[in-house]
Amino acid sequence: MVHMMKRNRFLLILGLFFKIFNLQAIIIDNPYIPLFDYAYQHKVDRRSVLASNVFVAMAHQGYTELQGTIPLPELFGKYNMTNTAKALVATGQPNPLPTSWQALPNLIWDMQGNLFVQGIWFDYEQYLGHDLSVGFRVPFMHVTTQLEFLEPEALKTIVGLGVGGEANLYTVLTQVNRALGFNSYQWQTTDFGDFDLYVRWGTVQDYAYKCRHIDLSLKIGALLPVTGKVALDTPIAIPLGANHHYGLYFETDFNCDLKDDLRVGFWLNATNRLAKNQVRRMAAGRELPQFGAIVGAAQVDPGLSIGFSPYVWLDDLRDGLGVRASYRMCWHGQDYWRDMRADNSVPAQLANVIDNSGWMAEWFTVGLVYDLQQNVNFYRAAPFFYLDLDIPSGVFSPHLVSKTYRLSAGFEFNF
């Protein structure tokens, strides 16, 4: 009896300790970091939810529809030093290339790089009664990226350099990129992602419509940028949210226990970010967007994002241990850009960045679940724990997204 009281007290303390931490966020419009998960599992008599999740994510490659898997920094193409130098000249700067190289058509470098993310979700959902709940969620992340330029043998041949000519090539490359304002090929930041505030209507029923349990919800939410804007002094900074754009989303999810040990469900999300005027890099010629020679005011109107994810969950296969699997697909429409500079005598070339702003990503997720409710007596204070692995997939030709793997470990708690 004393042992049981101590165990129940421990579970209560565990749940209260993690009350400030929560997961199950579904933010679908970041092409570099997967920021979504399974929908909440609500109980008839416990419809508030808290949880916690820590995760790591990493990538060194990306997807394009035509080329398949490519190095991550080359999502938008190879680095052409000739085009970059010409763009600098168009903005009124001197040509940083040696005189003998300025007439050469294509001085193309290979690039490789990586992305590494560590993070945790903070989240809380409170049931108000009459099928209504309110909640908030925000991720906190540490992100590092790295870029490396590799000179192909063809590049040395074009500029007429022999053995040992790499040093001269890298010297010129450094001069070109410093003229753009870049001093480092490493970047890191520690910051919050977008703050998600939502209202949820949901019905939860047991033994209805020939199912053991049904959980259906409709949700409307606002995405409020907390993180700082993407840095303009490096070509490898990525957004932790959506480049400081406010957003609105509509979401529905459905969870159904077909029988004691089999659960299926899905979520569907549509997100729209609002247009915003901000200082961004823009191309002056045919240089890559992230190496744009123009830094000035632009209006960006992000496209619509849609995400969909079905799942299957086998519960309590042995002493509370279960498995689950899911497929996630996210699609983002083209963004629309407009040059808002007062002086646009050097016109911005926005066609490339607009054409390459739409993307599609997909992942398969597999996970283990351990449900303490299956083998403790104090059911109301027993969370379930999980370990999920998100594996990027190329089944339906993902395009212009990072090939990011993510490992998540956490729990969910109903009260």
Could you describe the 3D structure shown?
The protein has 415 residues and is mostly beta strands. The protein has a single domain, classed as Outer membrane phospholipase (ompla), Chain C (Beta Barrel), CATH 2.40.230. 13% of the residues lie in helices and 48% in strands. The protein contains five helices and 20 strands. The chain has helices at 2-17, 81-90, 153-159, 166-179, 351-355; strands spanning 49-59, 61-64, 68-71, 79-80, 108-129, 132-150, 186-192, 195-208, 211-224, 247-259, 262-273, 276-282, 294-301, 305-318, 321-332, 336-339, 359-371, 384-392, 401-402, 405-414. A twelve-stranded antiparallel beta barrel has the order 1-5-6-8-9-10-11-14-15-17-18-20. A three-stranded antiparallel β-sheet has the order 3-2-19, with no helix packed on it. A three-stranded antiparallel β-sheet has the order 12-13-16, with no helix packed on it.
